[in-house]
Design goal:
Layout (H helix, E strand, L loop, with lengths): L11 H17 L16 E12 L2 E9 L9 E7 L5 E3 L15 E8 L5 E10 L9 E10 L6 E7 L8 E10 L2 E9 L5 E8 L6 E8 L7 E10 L2 E9 L13 E8 L7 E2 L4 E2 L7 E7 L5 E7 L13 E2 L1 E2 L3 E6 L2 E6 L7 E6 L3 E3 L4 E5 L5 E8 L5 E10 L5 E7 L4 E8 L7 E5 L6 E9 L2 E6 L4 E6 L8 E9 L3 E11 L9
Parallel strand pairs: 1-20
Antiparallel strand pairs: 1-2, 2-3, 3-4, 5-6, 6-7, 7-8, 9-10, 10-11, 11-12, 13-14, 14-15, 15-16, 15-17, 18-19, 19-21, 19-22, 22-23, 24-36, 25-36, 26-35, 27-32, 27-36, 28-29, 28-35, 29-30, 30-31, 32-33, 33-34
Bound molecules: beta-D-fructofuranose.
Beta-D-fructofuranose (FRU) binds next to strand 1, strand 5, strand 9, strand 13 and strand 18.
Amino acid sequence: MNQPTTKENADMSAQLDKAQKSIDRLFATRNDRWYPQCHIASKAGWINDPNGLSYYKGRYHAYFQLNPYGSEWGNMHWGHVSSADLVTWRREPLAMAPTLEVEKDGVFSGSAVVGDDGRLTIYYTGHRWRNGVNDDDGNLQEQCMAVSSDGIHFEKKGVVIPCPDDKILHFRDPKVWKIGGLWYMVFGVSTPAQRGEIWMYTSNDMEHWTFDRVIYRHPDPEVFMLECPDMFPLEDKWVICYSAMGLKPHGFEARNHNNAGYVIGSWQPGGDFHQETEFHLWDDGHNFYAPQTFQAPDGRRLVFGWMSPFTEPIPMQEDGWCGQFTVPREVTLAGDHLRCLPIREFSNLDQDQQDFGPIELEVNGSRDLVDDAQTADINMEIDLNKSQAERIGLEIHRTQSGDHTLVCYDDQLGRVVLDRHCNTYGDRGYRTAPVDKSSGKLKLRIIVDRGSVEVVVNDGLEIMSSYSFPAEGPRGIRLIAESGEGKALISSLSIAKLGTIWEEPDR
Ligand code: FRU
């Protein structure tokens, strides 16, 4: 391997120690009002992308981009949690700190595979600012490798794919898999002409990589970078997904600062990718980005997304932490779409389920269901044929101030709406998801945590993830029906509390 690229500036264990001390300091004053109970988050500090999702030596591993020194983005390290069952998680020691010259300004995102020698092998991006200070002159990024025999302690191997052209300003986020005897890697590139592309490399030995082809180029010239690409098989198809920078909003779509989505098509090793569907967003909420998938040992394709707080104000930053994952989701094919459903094991966290049975609400009626829900797993079915109200749904995180987040079916739009306009804290605004009304029923599952809401529409045909920061006091849940010709018919409704995901709660 290229010698200068392994030049060490610092000792990893000393750097990790220093970073852990900073996390502990931030944790001492962490405010828990919105800190998640049933979503992965760092004990303190900022997190972004899920990294290195894998199953190794009997445990699931989820690493993540972490700033241990504050609740803003910066100083990228890799944090780490692990689990035996994908439900209960354990905090692990921080996995990687920047120590090499080539990663002076951060160990950026990447993926993990169990290598030919049985070690957990991580491919990630070593990042430096070209001007040494910030991204005004772009980045100098190279794909790096590290190995571990326990998933906890990593030995860095340095650069495996250097950046081939100094006019390339983004070159990052390797995702690796193996077919037959060959290893494949894809990562995102912003070309010298600033087009967003995904490049594919191959390797026989995991260390020496050869350029194979540009496997995907974004058709929109405004899209200048495809972050965190992923490529995986589902049945007889292949999915390419990416997090697009530069995509403009159109109608209900792509309304977030950056947006993550996918296309489905076919691919044979050694060939081109043939796209067969339109681009679809992974998630229709305000906060979803940089998802990564991996295959569980039972064959399921699972995805974790980062609930990206791109838009200011970001009130959790005042609380000593920032950012959480979505709940783990299983991904399956549903025609030209992906179905994303919280993994079935997630229901193991349900406690004290209350069944409200069928409910008929008069027009402009409301009913308080729960007085104070820190967390909730809500299942409800609306009879669309027998309901005439214009909007039917739930006010979540409803406090005495009137603050709430509305999750409802809107008959004018024919869509599910997640609306935060009554929130004191955080970014407001609404997002919507399309609804297939052919069955005459709408199924909603709503996962409520202390600072977030995830809405699963019709068994995962659509899904929405948004932060929702409740105001002070108890957090009620209220059923509402608004306007229209007549009543709302809810054919079933149940609400459970959700237990904590942490093996050892922080406090
Ligand atoms: C996506 C991203 C990646 C990069 C990482 C840095 O959110 O920008 O492209 O590797 O975050 O933290």
